[in-house]
Design brief:
There is one protein chain. The chain is an alpha/beta fold and 300 residues long. Helix 1 packs across helix 3, helix 1 crosses helix 7 and helix 3 packs across helix 7. The protein is built from eight helices and eight strands, in the order ααβββαβαββαβαβαα. The two termini are 34 Å apart. The radius of gyration is 17 Å and the shape is globular. The chain has one domain: Zn peptidases (Aminopeptidase, 3-Layer(aba) Sandwich), CATH 3.40.630.10. An eight-stranded mixed β-sheet has the order 1-2-4-3-5-8-6-7, with helices on both faces.
Length: 300
């Protein structure tokens, strides 16, 4: 992987994260001006790539809200979809650098990379609103609204990836925690990216892991687990499970690693942008290289 390319991408990711968590700050329906500023920034970045941006608009407590979407056409299977999503709102009281400016920053940069890589599937990149409490898994959650509309349209979504906190890494032993008995099977250093699915998405998880390992040397850990294991369902991928779509969360493991989770200390200076850039490049390359022939044998 070219060092200069990683450095340039790391700088771009940091610029996005600083915009969301620093200049805009806490962003949710309780601070509508900031929420709308974040949405406008996302649209501006994608428009700058020459993409056509669409919004799924609705209101919550009288506040206009929107999921924001662009699509990169597939070269082999244009009617079959990979959905990449990241929520741009924050919990109250937090500037949300890792949660989830990091995911949105990666989403923006992956979109630009996919435009040059010509993915086999069509890829929809979606910035979701209202993932955080009090909306999580309720009718006003942005990804629930999106997944419901996709099912009504009959969208053929082969895989959804939820980019949920991608920026916090630690090398020291003891910096990674796990739920239940998983600590006996996984490393104690928080230096990897995690890929997590429910049991029904296990084959798709293997599909993605194979593609990522072929595209990147960045360390990863993967697990297909029951949805009720603590932390497994805590992001936008669970909305797609609810509507019968296979989905995977890509994460630095959130509160199991990052001590600043959901706090005022979740600021841009705490993130590792070089590692985040390596993950972003690996995700873009792996999504672009997913083989349609394998997907056809996966039951969704």
């Amino acid at each position: 992987m070219r060092t200069a390319h990683v450095a340039d991408l790391a700088a771009a990711l940091e610029r996005h994260v600083r915009m969301f968590s620093g200049e805009i700050g806490e962003r949710n329906v309780f601070r509508p001006g900031a929420l709308h500023a974040a949405a406008d920034y996302i649209e501006e970045q994608w428009t700058g790539y020459g993409c056509t941006v669409t919004r799924q608009n609705y209101q919550v407590h009288g506040v206009p809200c929107a999921n924001i979407e662009v699509e990169v056409a597939g070269s082999a299977q244009p009617d079959e979809l990979i959905v990449l999503g990241a929520h741009y709102d924050t919990v109250r009281g937090s500037p949300g650098a890792d949660d989830n400016a990091s995911g949105v920053a990666a989403l923006l940069e992956i979109t630009g990379t996919l435009l040059t890589l010509l993915p086999r599937y069509s890829v929809r990149c979606v910035a979701f609103v209202n993932e955080e409490a009090p909306f999580f898994f309720r009718s006003d959650m942005g990804s629930l609204r999106y997944a419901s509309a996709a099912r009504r349209r009959g969208d053929c979504i082969r895989l959804m990836l939820s980019l949920e906190m991608l920026g916090y890494y630690r090398q020291e032993p003891g910096t990674q925690r796990y739920p239940l008995l998983l600590r006996y099977f996984y490393p104690t250093q928080g230096n990897f990216i995690g890929f997590v699915s429910n049991l029904r998405s296990a084959r798709q998880l293997r599909w993605l892991v194979d593609a990522f390992e072929a595209s990147s040397s960045f360390p990863l850990e993967a697990a297909a687990l029951p949805w009720w294991v603590p932390g497994v369902a805590l992001s936008d991928h669970s909305s797609f499970w609810r509507y019968g779509y296979p989905a995977i969360m890509v994460t630095d493991t959130a509160y199991l690693r990052n001590p600043h989770y959901h706090s005022a200390h979740d600021v841009s200076a705490t993130l590792d942008y070089v590692r985040m850039a390596e993950v972003t490049l690996g995700l873009a390359a792996s999504v672009a290289s997913l083989e349609p022939g394998y997907a056809r044998v996966i039951r969704t």
